[in-house]
Amino acid sequence: MSILEVVGVSKLFGALRAVDDVSFTVEAGEIFGIAGPNGSGKSTLFNTISGIPFGPDEGRVVFQGQDLSRLKGHVIARMGLARTFQRETAFDTLSVFENALMGASYGRAARGAGAAEVTEALQFVGFDKAMFRRPAAELSVYDRKCLMLATALAMSPRILLLDEPASGLTKPEIEDSITLIRRIAGRGITILLIEHVLTMLLTLSQRLMVLNQGRMLILGEPEEVVRNPEVIRAYLGD
Ligand code: ADP
Ligand code: MG
After folding, report:
1. Could you tell me if 46 and 192 are in contact, meaning their C-beta atoms sit under 8 angstroms apart?
2. What's the pTM?
3. What is the ipTM for the molecules in this complex?
4. C-alpha 63: how far from its chain's center?
5. 231 alpha carbon to ligand 2 midpoint, in Å?
């Protein structure tokens, strides 16, 4: 059963079609990979799906049978669609726990933002209680990514959009985050994964879509997609 349908979605910035008539469906429980050169529209696609900060200009996004395209980001979050951002954002002066609680309340306010969910999510990503109290300013890149992930998880999403979770990480940290993402999928959460790190995409995704200049170049079995000559050309900028 498909949990998410993206139908002819476009996002325009002036004359630029940053996302240009993109359509695909994601099955429940799937890890769906998204790749593409810088500027190909990957993050903008996540923005249009999550409504943060904007929905699509054209087309529609259907989540569990409901049209999201005209809904606000916090409403979409409360329906069970959570995301992380390409850049690790946190309030530096607040503690790890306060950050996660505040962030998660975006998605959970209607149901009552829960300290219990936040605690569970922070523990799930590997933080101990001493870590809960540390100011976010002290965190490493990896820990900031874990905090962002925990914040999203605390919203109890059905589907999770991850924007370059491996960027800026060391090899061992990438291995750790692969394990973490697997465990999230193991909870039955559907995952959309934007990445440049091929090992992560090939290890985790069941299907892989490549965007180029806002359009879908190819969608298929990951091993085949990365060997496709058109994909290689797009990356080399030929
Ligand atoms: P990717 O995540 O694949 O690197 P983006 O989605 O960030 O690509 O960007 C796609 C295109 O849209 C780029 O040309 C980028 O400069 C442009 N773009 C993204 N966000 C904005 C914005 N808020 N205003 C204007 N142009 C934007
Ligand atoms: Mg991006």
Report:
1. yes
2. 0.96
3. 0.99
4. 15
5. 17
Token representation of residue 49: 């799906």
Q: What would the two tokens of residue 138 be?
A: 């002290």
- Give the integer Cα–Cα distance in Å for 9 and 174: 31
Question: For residue 17, how far is its CA from the centre of ligand 1 (angstroms)?
Answer: 9
Separation of 18 CA from ligand 1 center, angstroms?
A: 6
- In one-letter notation, the amino acid at residue 174 is I
Query: Which residue's CA lies nearest to atom 17 of ligand 1?
Result: 18
Q: What is the Cα 48 distance to its own chain's centre?
A: 12
Phi and psi of 118, rounded to 5°?
-65, -45
pLDDT, tens digit, 9 for 90 and up, residues 43-65: 999 999 999 999 999 999 999 99
Provide the residue type at 212 as one letter. N
Long-range pairs, 177-184, Cβ under 8 A, ≥24? 177/142, 177/145, 178/203, 178/204, 180/125, 180/126, 180/146, 180/149, 181/31, 183/124, 184/149, 184/153, 184/160
